[in-house]
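Extended Data, record Long-chain primary alcohol dehydrogenase AdhA
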Amino acid sequence: MWETKININEVREIRAKTTVYFGVGAIKKIDDIAREFKEKGYDRIIVITGKGAYKATGAWEYIVPALNKNQITYIHYDQVTPNPTVDQVDEATKQAREFGARAVLAIGGGSPIDAAKSVAVLLSYPDKNARQLYQLEFTPVKAAPIIAINLTHGTGTEADRFAVVSIPEKAYKPAIAYDCIYPLYSIDDPALMVKLPSDQTAYVSVDALNHVVEAATSKVASPYTIILAKETVRLIARYLPQALSHPADLTARYYLLYASLIAGIAFDNGLLHFTHALEHPLSAVKPELAHGLGLGMLLPAVVKQIYPATPEVLAEMLEPIVPDLKGVPGEAEKAASGVAKWLAGAGITMKLKDAGFQAEDIARLTDLAFTTPSLELLLSMAPVTADRERVKAIYQDAF
């Protein structure tokens, strides 16, 4: 039983701080949120989005009337790309400062929400910029209030204290984690996600899957993260095939979104380790690489490495996608191949070489895993020693 792996004498933090409005029709709660923001004096905001999803999903049709009704004026920054950059954050921050924005509203998946969290910090630190923030040159303790309208079922960022933004010239993709960037309110409405393409549906769900594989096996895993992990895997295994076959199925989207939400809460508590620490260099070097796809390429190799240290946890957790695991160290290969088979069923069969990486890139990727700000901390959370040889072995196995 996995319970035997928990040290009951180690004190754990249990985090669940953001108020999330969840369910079909939750987008209508934006009117209540806007009213409250107006009452609190947050009557000038910056809206941060990507280039099209905020409209294509229908979210914009609810947000603009709510802001207008409650006499909230806004400026709109719509240039956030997948794997957002510090330059985008600084550009949005400059516009927000000049406008006098007092709060931030993000509409999108992880990229717009993480960019918005970053802008919220910089609004409270007018002498700082995004490079300083993501090179950990200061520790923020305050940020402008954040509203997150989530448009994907993968990142969990709408309910956690994390954000990720790239520094292109250094090929860094660091993560930050501060209490001040929990969104005050978030909206999770599965009706906004029915137009997600099939590949993105798979990629974001694999992101959520990776969150719990790591959160349930890290050095700070707790019964809370493990229970959340088990339910996340069960829901993804059951509802991802349905969403891929029937994209407009609101029940499937609902439960994939719920899985993503609780996975976000799980890693907010249990942190991350190998797959995220090793994926960030991949999409920093190749920004066009979807984060979830990169994670999927790495996951079987990571499972192979960590399974011997956490077999009881992983056997129970992975049972819906890799049945008949006994929870003994010697079945690491079986677990890894089972995960790879399940990923293939979701359409994820690519290896690093298929994404354009060369064998000689492995040394650089390994260096980036240890030199990118914040990633070495993630590696230190792994259940096995995360030295350069092990990191290199994971990249080679995924190649």
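Summary. The CA atoms of residues 310 and 357 lie 30 Å apart.
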